[in-house]
Amino acid sequence: MGRSPCCCHDAGVKKGPWTEEEDRALVEHIKKQGGHVGSWRSLPRAAGLNRCGKSCRLRWTNYLRPDIKRGNFSDEEERLIVRLHAALGNKWSTIATHLDGRTDNEIKNYWNTHIKKKLLRMGIDPVTHQRLPPDLLLVDGGLASPLLPPPPPPPGALHPLLSAVASLGSLDSTLRQFQLLQQLLSAINSNNDVAAGLMGMANLAATNAMVSPTSTVANHQPSYLCDVPSFSGQDMAEQQRLSSSDTTAPPVLIRSSAEPVDHQCCNDAALVPETYPQGVTAIVDWQMQEFSNLEPLDLELPNLCSLESDLDPFWRTY
DNA sequence: AACGCGCCCAACCGCACATAC
DNA sequence: TGTATGTGCGGTTGGGCGCGT
């Protein structure tokens, strides 16, 4: 199943910014069809547009659709995006289904230009949603000095990332297991067969987590949001801290006096929740280097169910 | 006023999946 | 069942714009 030929490659098909006339022609044509597009590929000719169907679809879904909400994102929307991203990763289209009138493209852009920077300023890794190690915290708006590799694990020890996966507890932690597994699998992507098999199992685990009534995506909450009254307020405070002379001070954590601290959700002394193994963030980077040197192995796939109790011998390989 | 720089976001690109035949 | 076609999706690009010098 190869890539399909796209009319975009035809010579003479217009690219670039849309004109008002083109917008009008597209909207009027779709209105005539009752708001329903049967075939995007045949639409440009029918609408009298010298555009590729893909370009028309994008223009409609991201800009011209009547139910699109424009304007700034609210604080509540920001928090929702962060929560959903923590649970789903870069699944922008899925995230967009939870925000009325927002497109995946808009959310993706907003994430990359605003939220990502806010999280970094707050000392949070926007990819893993874990606290950044101290030597990677922001200094004057940029990342600090390169991460020094941590000392190698003692001989015979369980690989730290696998240890982190294995030590995660109940069903509610399945999403966290999935996130760590994704990191693990991307690290061993040179071993494609094994990675594909594991990815299938990881996806299955994630699916199980999604459908579990005790662990819905909508309820998933990164730890740093648990007792923060305002995400924007948190970031503003952090910006003030960074702009002040004392950049060595720890990241700010605003607590709402009205809301009691949920100790099951957040570690009182840090942003890392108690259920997370210490040092998870730090090990992610060096494990990439570790796995990049691995030779392809003839491995028997592990039983993921064994992660929570007795460890499958597979996990002790590293 | 002119220039350089960085940010933002609409649009594009290419891959993967779904469906039709 | 295999192939062709259509569509969805996530990553990337580049032009416009504002701001500082």
In order across it, which strands form the biggest sheet?
1-2
Q: What is the structural class? A: mainly alpha
The tally of beta strands, per DSSP, is 2
**Principal-axis shape:** elongated
Strand composition percent = under 5%
Largest sheet: 2 strands, antiparallel
The CA-CA distance between the termini, in Å, is 36 Å
Low-pLDDT regions: 1-5, 138-175, 185-215, 249-318
Order of helices and strands: HHHHHHEEHHHHH
Helix content: 40-55%
Quaternary organisation of the protein chains: single chain
- Our Rg estimate from Cα atoms comes to 23 Å
The number of distinct helices, counting runs of at least 4 residues, comes to 11
Describe the structure in your own words.
With 318 residues, the chain is an all-alpha fold. It is built from 11 helices and 2 strands. Among the domains are: 12-64, Orthogonal Bundle (Arc Repressor Mutant, subunit A); 160-219 and 274-316, no CATH class. It starts with 19 loop residues before the first helix and ends in a 26-residue tail after the last helix. It has a two-stranded antiparallel ribbon with strand order 1-2. α8 (174-187) packs antiparallel against α9 (192-211). The chain binds a DNA duplex (21 and 21 nucleotides) through residues 1-6, 8, 15-18, 39-41, 53-55, 57-59, 61-63, 90-93, 104-106, 108-110, 112-114.
